[in-house]
Amino acid sequence: MAGAFAEAGADLELVDLHKRFPGFTAIEEMNLVIPAGSFFALLGPSGCGKTTTLRLVAGLEEATSGRILIGGKDVTETKPYQRPVNTVFQSYALFPHMSVIDNVAFGLRRRGISDAKGKSHEALALVELDHLSARRPAQLSGGQQQRVALARAIVNRPALLLLDEPLGALDLKLRRQMQLELKSIQDEVGLTFLHVTHDQEEAMTMADTVAVMNKGRIEQLGAPEMLYELPRTAFVANFLGQSNLFTGPVSGTTATSIAVDVEGTRIVVPKARAERHTGTVTVGVRPEKLTLHTEAPEVDSSRNLLGPGRVIDVSFSGVSTQYILAVPGAGTVTVFAQNMGVGPLVADGAEVWVSWSVDHGFGLEDEAPPAPRFDADTDTATIAVQKKRALMSELEEA
Fold first, then answer.
1. What 8-state DSSP symbol labels residue 370?
2. Burial group, residue 388, by CB count within 10 angstroms (0-12, 13-18, 19+)
3. Over the stretch 12-65, which tens digit does the pLDDT of each residue have?
4. Which of 31, 139, 151, 371 is deepest in the core (most CB within 10 A)?
5. Any domain includes 379
6. Tens-digit pLDDT profile for residues 61-119
7. Do both 255 and 325 map to the same domain?
C-alpha cells in the first residue's frame, strides 16, 4: 500500500512575502524555503502571523507583495483550487450527511478521478480507519474524525499538506497519540507537511524543522533540539520552554569562554554557545539543567553557582517538581527536579544554592533590555506565589 502514496511532496519557497491588513502588518518580509518531503512547523503565539502565512500558501489570502513558489512554480496569483495543496483544519469540516468513505472520496469524484472509492479505501487504511468506512462522522470520536480529515486530504496526493492546529480540539492523551501517528503517516506518504501550531511540545515532537514566529517575522529556525538548546533571543528562550536569564557585562574572556558579572556573581558560558562576546549580554540556562543544594557546594570551575537563595514556591507536577527561588542579585530562578524519590527535595522557605554545568549555558544575541520607566512592583512568579499564599490563608481562616 505504501507504493500507492509514493509520490514525493514538493518544496515550498516564500520570497520577500508581505501581508498588510488595514491598520497592521501581519507578515513582514518573510523569506523561507521548506525542502520537499519534510515535516515543517510554524510555531508562535496568537497573532504572530503563522496562520496568515498558511492562508497565503493555500491561496485563501492574497499577498500584499512577494512570491510563493511550490515545486519551483510561482503560484502567487493562482486560485486556491488550482494549487497542489490541501488543508486540514482544526474543525475537520466533514460532511455530516455523508459516510466516511464518501467524505474521503468527495474531492476525487469532483475532479473525475478514476477508482475514487478504491483510492479512498487505501487512504483510510493508511490512517487505520477503513473498517469504519460506512459510518457517518457523528458516529466517530474526535480523534477518528481528525484521521478521516487527514485521509481526505492525503487521498488527493497534494504536493503540500497544510495543517492548521489540527489537534487543538483533542484531549491531551489523544493529542499526544495523534502527534506520533501524524509523523508516522508523513514518513510513509512522503508529502511535504507544513504544520501551524502554538503548542511547543507538538512542534518539537513532530517536526524536522521548526520556525519560531514573532510579530510577523521568523525569530529563529532550525531543528527542534538546536532551538531548545541554543535559543538566540529571549523570545525563543522563553516561548520554547522556560529559561532562566541573567544580564550583565562581560567581565572576562578566555579562548573558549566568556564570564558575565551578574550583580557580583560570575557566570561562565562557552563562546561557542554565546551569540555575543563583549559588552552587556544576556545569558541563560534551562530549569532542568540546574541542581539544587541544601548546603553551599565546593567551588568548581566547570560549574556555575548561584546562592544562597530562598525557596518561595514548590509545585508538584508528577514527573518533576518545580521550585521557584528568590536569589539576591539574580531575581527569581526556576528549577525543575525529576521526582526520583518521595516528596519534594526542599520545602517552601528553605535556604538553597543552585549550580549547573558551564557547558549547559547559552548566550543570546539580544541587546540588553532598556531600563523601564518605573520599577516593577514584582514579577509574575512572585505575584502567583503571593496569590497562592493569600488563598491558603483564607482557607485556613475559614
1. P
2. middle
3. 999 999 999 998 899 988 999 999 989 999 999 988 999 999 999 999 999 999
4. 151
5. no
6. 999 999 999 999 999 999 998 898 988 887 767 888 999 999 999 888 888 888 888 98
7. yes
Q: What confidence tens digit (pLDDT) does each residue in 204-253 have?
A: 988 999 999 999 999 999 999 999 999 999 999 999 989 999 999 999 99
**What is the number of domains present in the chain?**
2
DSSP per residue over 125-194, as a string? HHTT-GGGTTS-GGGS-HHHHHHHHHHHHHTT--SEEEEESTTTTS-HHHHHHHHHHHHHHHHHH--EEE
From CA 95, how far away is CA 317, in angstroms rounded?
41
Q: Strands 39-43, 209-214: parallel, antiparallel or unpaired by DSSP?
A: parallel
Q: Which of 11, 25, 28, 12 is nearest to 68 (CA)?
A: 12
Domain residues for 82?
2-229
Residues 246 and 222 in one domain: no
Return the pLDDT at 64. 94
Note whether residue 377 is domain-resident. no
Q: For residue 250, what pLDDT is reported?
A: 96
Burial degree of 35 (CB within 10 A; 0-12, 13-18, 19+): middle
Among 200, 229, 258, the domain boundary falls at 229
Handedness of CA 96, 144, 106, 12 (dihedral sign): positive
pLDDT at 246: 95
We report the CATH number of the domain holding residue 281 as 2.40.50.140
Radius of gyration of the chain (CA): 25
| Lookup: cell for 119 | 483510492
